[in-house]
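call fold(seq) -> tokens
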Amino acid sequence: MSTTTLGITPTDNPFHALAVAHAAMHEGSEFNKAAGCHVPAISRKDADIALGHAEQVLDDCTFGMQALGHLLRHHDGRLIGDTEDTLFQAGCLISLLANVQGHAVEAIESARCRLWAHDRIAATLRQEARS
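ret:
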């Protein structure tokens, strides 16, 4: 099994860690016939860390969208600038957060698939050792 160790840690900036993990989670790898799945190109530890970061990014985007929604619902235009500018900027931020949220959801799915493959291969190796 050839996997890449990325060197990401749970304390890294989650956006940076996901950018580092993205390519490795999508690299092709050899097929393990006994397990019936591809060997992940990313280590189990890194996939687990990437999953945690992706979930954090998803939460951050959700909270940011909620804050912008609150701002838009309660904005009277006096305290934070011109209404037209504020609505435009809030719309841009919501669009950006939605894009990041989409990437986070995709990263969660990719990391879960890699973790499943690692578990499947480990179970197959244990089964073969017993035989």
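The chain has a mean pLDDT of 87.
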